[in-house]
Inverse folding.
């Protein structure tokens, strides 16, 4: 039993603790996404940047395709409350290379969006009254 603890349990515990430390040690500062309204697809990245933004109601958001291939923006308020869902129709918007698309969101809520062509491209707009201005 002692051998089991010394050669099996303790090494596993050590590995677990050291991996936790590694994860903590490699964490980067969280970027400030308050009041950002520009979401860019840079060339070859297959991702929206930033992925998550936090804005006030009435913000006009802009998606820009700086890539050399087509993307297709789909956005909905489906995870928000009933009033938001009723008042914010879903967006289905082709984003050819070099184009931009603007869309105003007037109601508080959570708006996931993604690219209909590349399912690894996703993001989220969080709309809240209480966004502190920088
Ligand atoms: Cu895409």
């Amino acid at each position: 039993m002692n051998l089991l603890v010394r050669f099996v349990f303790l090494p596993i515990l050590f590995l677990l603790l050291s991996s936790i430390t590694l994860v903590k040690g490699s964490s980067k500062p969280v970027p400030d996404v308050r009041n950002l309204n520009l979401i860019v697809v840079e060339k070859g990245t297959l991702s929206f940047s930033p992925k998550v933004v936090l804005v006030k109601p009435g913000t006009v958001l802009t998606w820009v395709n700086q890539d050399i291939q087509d993307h297709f923006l789909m956005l909905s308020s489906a995870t928000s409350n009933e009033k938001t869902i009723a008042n914010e129709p879903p967006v289905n918007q082709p984003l050819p290379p070099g184009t931009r698309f603007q869309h105003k969101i007037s109601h508080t809520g959570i708006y996931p969006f993604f690219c209909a062509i590349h399912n690894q491209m996703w993001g989220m707009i969080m709309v809240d009254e209480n966004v502190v201005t920088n």
Q: What stands out?
A: The first strand starts at residue 38 and ends at 41. The longest helix spans residues 2-25. The radius of gyration is 21 Å.
